[in-house]
């Protein structure tokens, strides 16, 4: 609908559950849907969690390789919350990793643990970048978190700092106008 309305198309991320990832005809079904709607695979990113990949690492590698071959972008979501080993991470055919919001929130929560949180986030960013992956921080809510991430080489983030979830018509309108999402935090203390 956006394309028909002349709204610029942007990539969209879709989470794949464990049941969806290991569905017998997943890749064929997605290809058929993409063909039907004439959508470029480069406009879709599929995200899976570490625990989803760990259910059957060999199967996950095959399925993700098939999706990657079609042209989809693939990311490991909620990175750091699962139990994936580093050898598995380096063998998964993904383009990026998304640092779980719990680690980003830790940058400002308990002052006694802030140093630990910063070290963990910095290590995750470094690991992803050194593996040649795109690194995205989830749950960015404050300018201080954003500034920390930028100073540690993480240049992509998502969270309430940038926008709260919006209905399709609002996002479509912003895209059509070429308007960027507000990067400031709303002041809820005013009436």
Mean pLDDT: 88
Shape summary:
flat
Strand content: 15-25%
What is the CATH C level class of the largest domain, in words? Alpha Beta
Poorly predicted spans: 182-191
How many strands, what sense, and barrel or not for the largest sheet? Answer: 6 strands, parallel
> What is the total domain count?
2
CATH H-level superfamily of the largest domain: EAL domain
The number of distinct β-strands equals 6
Give structural notes.
With 191 residues, this protein is an alpha/beta fold. The chain has two domains: 1-94, Alpha-Beta Barrel (TIM Barrel); 101-179, no CATH class. The chain has helices at residues 18-21, 26-37, 50-55, 57-70, 86-91, 101-105, 114-130, 143-151, 168-177; strands at 12-15, 44-49, 73-79, 96-99, 134-138, 156-158. A six-stranded parallel sheet has the order 1-2-3-4-5-6. The longest helix has 17 residues, at 114-130.
């Amino acid at each position: 609908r956006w394309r028909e309305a002349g709204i610029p198309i942007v990539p969209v991320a879709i989470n794949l559950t464990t049941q969806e990832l290991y569905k017998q005809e997943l890749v064929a079904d997605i290809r058929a849907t993409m063909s039907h709607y004439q959508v470029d695979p480069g406009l879709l990113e599929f995200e899976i969690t570490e625990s989803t990949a760990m259910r059957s690492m060999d199967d996950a590698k095959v399925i993700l390789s098939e999706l990657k071959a079609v042209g989809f972008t693939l990311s490991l979501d909620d990175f750091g919350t699962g139990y994936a080993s580093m050898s598995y991470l380096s063998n998964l055919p993904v383009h990026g990793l998304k640092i779980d919001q719990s680690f980003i929130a830790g940058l400002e929560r308990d002052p006694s643990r802030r140093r630990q949180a910063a070290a963990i986030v910095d290590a995750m960013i470094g690991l992803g970048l050194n593996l040649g992956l795109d690194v995205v921080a989830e749950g960015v809510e404050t300018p201080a978190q954003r500034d920390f991430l930028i100073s540690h080489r993480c240049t992509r983030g998502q969270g309430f700092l940038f926008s709260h979830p919006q209905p399709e018509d609002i996002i479509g309108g912003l895209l059509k106008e070429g308007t960027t999402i507000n990067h400031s935090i709303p002041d809820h203390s005013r009436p």
